[in-house]
Sequence to fold (228 residues):
Amino acid sequence: AQSVTQLGSHVSVSEGALVLLRCNYSSSVPPYLFWYVQYPNQGLQLLLKYTTGATLVKGINGFEAEFKKSETSFHLTKPSAHMSDAAEYFCAVTLDTGRRALTFGSGTRLQVQP
Amino acid sequence: DTAVSQTPKYLVTQMGNDKSIKCEQNLGHDTMYWYKQDSKKFLKIMFSYNNKELIINETVPNRFSPKSPDKAHLNLHINSLELGDSAVYFCASSPGSRENNEQFFGPGTRLTVL
Fold:
């Protein structure tokens, strides 16, 4: 079975500061990893995904994440936070076994202070 | 054009009632899902259909019954609603292939059981 742990349910940064949201996964087979963003009262939007190939993946809105197999991590970063980045962020994993449902982490709420 | 749509967006009802939530996708995807997001924002898979066939059925009370009349639609019927059913229900779809398993989410249906 797979699982996802997001460290920090709330992260607060100043506008212009580095954003780092942490995600660690547990999986018995190579995982597919995703980051989704949820704005208030909206659905989930895909930020980026890792399937195979390059371990540093770039997504929308200036976000990127690096798959580190040795650390079982897939942390999300953005060099400079913007007020519009304030939202809930979810890390998710699915396995290459034909079972394609996503297992989500518990989410991290990002606050951006002016 | 809305890729994944759900109706209704809000649903307020009394305990014991039966209600349905409808989901439609116009992406031509083969696989559709229902996820439940609880009051703590935790997201969990409920059901998954591939080409109208049920492939994932998590530990969900049998009061919940998904129905897929065709591969573009996946409806969720809930009998004898209970207070604990209050949540946001998200429909999602994906191509369902190993190479492309990105999931697209609908806007959610907020169910409140009084």
About this structure: Chain A has a mean pLDDT of 91.
